[in-house]
Amino acid sequence: MDTSVLLQHLSDYIELTPQEQEHFCQHLLPKKVAKRGFLLQTGQICRHSFFVHQGILRGYTLDQSGGEHLLSFAPAGWWMADLYSLFSQQPGQLFIQAMVDTEVWLLPKQAQEQLYLDIPKLERYFRILVEKSLVASQQRLIDNLSRTAEERYAQFERRFPDLISQVPQKYIASYIGVTPEFFSKMRANWLKRGNNSVPKKLSSQGCLPEAFNFP
Amino acid sequence: MDTSVLLQHLSDYIELTPQEQEHFCQHLLPKKVAKRGFLLQTGQICRHSFFVHQGILRGYTLDQSGGEHLLSFAPAGWWMADLYSLFSQQPGQLFIQAMVDTEVWLLPKQAQEQLYLDIPKLERYFRILVEKSLVASQQRLIDNLSRTAEERYAQFERRFPDLISQVPQKYIASYIGVTPEFFSKMRANWLKRGNNSVPKKLSSQGCLPEAFNFP
DNA sequence: CCTTTACCATAACCTAGATTAAGAAAACAG
DNA sequence: CTGTTTTCTTAATCTAGGTTATGGTAAAGG
Fold first, then answer.
1. From CA A80, how far away is CA B142, in angstroms rounded?
2. How would you label A5-40 residue by residue, b for 16+ Cβ within 10 Å and e otherwise?
3. Residue of A nearest to B124 (CA)
4. CB < 8 Å to B147, chain A
5. Distance between CA B57 and CA B51 in Å, rounded?
6. pLDDT band at A189 (very low <50, low <70, confident <90, very high)
7. Contact of B57 with B104, CB cutoff 8 Å
8. Any idea where the domains of chain A sit in the sequence?
9. pLDDT of A194 strictly over 70
10. Does domain B4-118 have CATH number 2.170.270.10?
11. B138·A69 Cβ contact <8 A
């Protein structure tokens, strides 16, 4: 397992000297998690940020009646965490699960704090990522308040062209906030209406670079 | 107009020397905006962060059919901005309006960037605020996906006890994502059921300190 | 003082999407 | 290759919340 994907990501935002890269990487712990395996479960304290080197993670919660609500996907090149729990070091409510066999780098909370002091540029890196996440999160809020399920799916399609063919569609339904049944119906209407932009393998250029999920 | 509220807020997160405080304050511009006045409108580029010294702001968007969707309130002691526009310096979609006569401090984007370099502690300050905002935004997303309108109102009540008696309830309705009519109906049922926790002047201790809105 | 402009309440009706319940079709394990 | 599990589809019924409409009260404002 190598750090190339992560270092590339860092270099999109800040410039680190080879020594700084070295120092950063010393704090990383590799981890493999099999399909359906968990990196975190409700009630646990999130003690690491996870950087997805390969694979796909999802973060979701359960409501009172056991319904899943998918807060975020994290394909390769994304960070993931239960942010509430990570920042506050209180027990969180998120499950973080691998949707396929996945390899991640763990960055311990402690190390992250230390790195902010050792290499202030990293504070900038994570500030910018959090800013982007916040914008994305607010946009999703607005979309949930003001757009129909179909429009939300169209957004999703633009934002995550790759995921559509890679993850079961019930998870996509959960992300945009509808039941799998309704999602299926919606899709059927869609095809009937000739709006043929549904599953065809799209421009496979990875997820849009401005989309993040955490630090 | 004095900077005490803002400096107090800063000191909750970082310690600045008197000189640093002075340097920070030199970049601030005071502004008064009357009730219903706008600090920003759709299509404009957001060139400042706004710190509410006194009064209340709201940030909202319009959908295709002219419906308002309230993204955030900012009472005294909160930061406000169209974050997408501020970060990207592209035209935004938010209206930022005063709900009562309001006094704000403007922190120009340029100055903010410069201050990150001059006083790295400020980068930390804003990083932490953005982190908290992100957690709040994600929580609100989860709530919108998994809780009923009534539960969302209960949350709101806990989170913004003061606002309830200070702003017209149609705005609260918009914030939690229902129409004013439905909100009214809900409230009526509520009272009928004897759940008498609706408008009584609650513990007036200001908004919970962990709730933010931006930097 | 009277008018206008917010703001709030109530009620009848309507629709997007939930829920429940099946089956069909993949994916997967043995 | 066969049995099992997971995923997808379809369809009937149901409900939370939206829409439209109408009247009422409070408070700006001339």
1. 16
2. bbeebbeebbebeeebbebbeebbeebebeeeeebb
3. A123
4. 63
5. 10
6. confident
7. yes
8. 4-119
9. no
10. no
11. no
Q: Judge: domain A4-119, CATH 3.30.110.30.
A: no
Only one residue has tokens 């982007």, namely A132
A83, A134, A140 member nearest B83 (Cβ):
A134
To the nearest whole angstrom, how far is the Cα of A58 from the nearest Cα of chain B?
14
- Cα A133 to Cα A161, A174, B84, B133: the distances in Å are 19, 19, 10, 10
Q: Is the dihedral of CA A212, A185, A62, B184 positive or negative?
A: positive
Contact criterion met (CB < 8 Å) for B61 and A142 = yes
Q: With an 8 Å Cβ cutoff, are A145 and B84 in contact?
A: no
The single-letter code of the amino acid at A55 is G
Residues of B in contact with A61 (CB under 8 A): 142, 146
A179 touches strand C (CB under 7 A): yes
A159-173: burial string, b at 16+ Cβ within 10 Å, e else: bbbbbbeebeeebbb
DSSP state of B200: S
Query: A209 — contact with chain B (CB < 8 Å)?
Result: no
User: According to the model, what pLDDT value does residue B165 have?
Assistant: 87
pLDDT at B202 over 80: no
CB-based contacts of A18, cutoff 8 Å, min separation 6: none
From B176, which residue of chain A is nearest by alpha-carbon distance?
Answer: A145
Q: Where are any strands of DSSP class E within A29-129?
A: 29-33, 38-40, 48-54, 56-62, 68-75, 79-80, 95-98, 102-108
Best of A60, A86, A131 to disrupt the B interface (most B CBs within 10 Å) is A131
Q: And the tokens for A136?
A: 């994305």
- Tell me the average pLDDT across A145-157: 93
Residue B42 in tokens:
């759709």
Q: Which residues of B109-131 are buried (b: 16+ CB within 10 A; e: fewer)?
A: bebbeebbeebebbbbbbbbbbb
Through-space separation of residue B33 CA and nucleotide D20 C1' in angstroms: 35
Token digits for B104? 């704000």
Whether B36 has a pLDDT exceeding 80, the answer reads: yes
Q: Please report which confidence band the pLDDT of residue B194 belongs to, taking 50, 70 and 90 as the band edges.
A: low
Q: What is A144-207 written as a DSSP string? A: HHHS-HHHHHHHHHHH-TTHHHHS-HHHHHHHHTS-HHHHHHHHHHHHHTT---SSS----S-S
Nearest of B128, B117, B52 to residue A130 by alpha carbon: B128
